[in-house]
Amino acid sequence: MAEEKENLENLTEQDLSEMMRVRREKMEDFRAMGVAPFGHRFEVADYAADLQKQYAYLEEDEEGGKTRIAGRLMAIRGHGKASFSTLNDRTGNIQIYFKLDILGERKYKEEFKRLDIGDIVGVSGTVFKTRRGEVTVRVEDFELLSKSLRPLPEKFHGLKDVDTRYRQRYLDLMVNYEIRDIFRKRTKIIQSIRRYLDERDFLEVETPVLSTIAGGAAARPFITHHNALDIDLYLRIATELSLKRLIVGGLDRVYEMGRIFRNEGMDIRHNPEFTSIEIYQAFADYRDLMNITEGIVCQAALDVLGTTKIHYQGTDIDLGQIRTISMNDAVYDVTGKNFLSYKTLDEARQAAKELQVPFEERYGIGGILNAVFEDRVEEKLIQPTFIIGHPTEISPLAKKNPDDPRITDRFEFFVYGRELANGFTELNDPIDQEQRFLEQLQQRAAGDAEAHVMDRDFITALEYGLPPTGGLGIGIDRLVMLLTDSPSIRDVLLFPTMKPLNG
Q1: Residue 434: which CATH number?
Q2: How far is CA 304 from the centre of its chain?
Q3: Is there a contact between 121 and 87 (Cβ–Cβ < 8 Å)?
Q4: 260-287, pLDDT tens digit by residue?
């Protein structure tokens, strides 16, 4: 009966079919008894964790109050005229106790005996503490709310197969309770970010997901077709250009949190669709947005973990201690090469070759500097670090540094060798912006499919006047990975993109 130890990983198709056949027979038995196997509304009064806490004071065999609780049966241990079961709800587990003398012949022998692990039931009864000191609900009545027609995977040891966990997240959540905690923390992190910005008078807005131009980032877009207009549209690769248009319009503090889509490779840090937040503040610069970045990250850590000192993948990290260093200095510290000291492109190319760092022939000194940084430095930035002084060549939307036009007033935030945030003082000169777009078009013509496209309407908006503005983008999924000690982005996405099994 329900005491069977089901392990789907070790079941043959024949075994699984037989178990499902038996469960369907029980479903029909319930129908024959006039019991709906897929029930109706149940008034839930309490939850498992609350009952555990509320009645922890009870002595052995002492009774507490009445309760109504609902959840999934995760274990059933039968002992003739009495049986114990584990009921799981969104807060955790609680033991429930079924007894023939209390439920009666029909309810116990006919209905209870046809329950299986995985069935969802509603229970009414009295809370008491067993002789072993476990808070338990003595069942006085129960309702079948949903018959489980498939046996649960690995109910005693958790669902181990990673591919199955990602493809069938509902199973993962059902049997791996620690996974539920990750997604609760994800929600708390998002709430913390919103609260931080709302308290500082930022306005949350929504911008189009579909656009005629894929702009705001160096990335390949997904393309779809609008039948009525008979035009191709792009899923957004960033929200930047739309949000800066709002700054032009007079909304001086805005942010948007939402899905971004990039037609790129997949690995432990990348998924084709991901969640990002972009933040823009008028009359500010990149240093103001660095402060906001630090504030958001530290506050989220405090709200979710109670501390800014975290432990990620075996490494202790203090989010409250952030170093700031230029890209060129960071490269120099690791390689001994000072790329911004080179007068000619040939010198930069020779230095990269000596370091055995690959680069494309179209790269200028700035592009080569960035290539060396990504190859040799990024993965070494374990403790929180702001990298500033990005080459103008790779920053088409950032304002040039007034003292050195080769670099921009831009920053990236790194933790554990991963970029978590990117921000800069926004370029608000329409003439300079147009020239940068033209240079990006040349790079596209030279083979860079991720180079920025021309956005004439954005130039027009800038011509009306964009006030000095600081902008920031934070990868929400990577931040959640960091604060939940998750090694892969798929661990923090409820439904990560997966290749079809038959594909």
Answers
A1: 3.30.930.10
A2: 14
A3: yes
A4: 999 998 999 999 999 999 999 999 999 9
Give the count of domains, the chain: 2
Residue that has been written with the tokens 């923090």 in this structure:
492
Round to whole Å and give the CA distance between 290 and 286. Answer: 6
Domain that holds residue 461: 177-322+384-492
Average pLDDT over residues 357-385: 97
The amino acid occupying position 247 is I
Contact yes or no for 149/84 (Cβ under 8 A) = no
pLDDT of residue 154: 63
Asked if residue 280 lies in contact with residue 424, where contact means CB atoms within 8 angstroms, the answer is: no
Task: Let me know whether 315 and 453 are in one domain.
Answer: yes
- E-assigned strand segments in 150-196: none
Q: Is residue 313 domain-shared with residue 418, that is, in the same domain? A: yes
Cα-to-chain-centroid distance, residue 456: 34
d(CA 276, CA 255) in angstroms, rounded, equals 10
Q: How far apart are CA 453 and CA 439, in angstroms?
A: 10
How many angstroms from the chain centroid is the CA of residue 3? 37
252 token code pair: 């001086």
- CA 211, CA 458: separation in Å to the nearest integer? 13
| Bridge partners of residue 315, in order along the sequence | 312
Q: Does residue 416 share a domain with residue 305?
A: yes
Q: What is the CATH number of the domain that holds 56?
A: 2.40.50.140
Q: At what angle do helices 286-305 and 177-198 cross, to 10 degrees?
A: 140
392 vs 274: CA distance, rounded Å: 27
Answer yes or no: do 430 and 482 share one domain: yes
Question: Which of 143, 91, 153, 90 minimizes the C-alpha distance to 117?
Answer: 153
The predicted model gives 407-431 an average pLDDT of 96
Whole-angstrom CA distances from 462 to 206, 211, 216, 292, 408 are 20, 19, 14, 25, 19
Looking at the structure, tell me whether residues 406 and 480 fall in a common domain. Answer: yes
Which residues face 419 on adjacent strands?
414
pTM of the model: 0.91
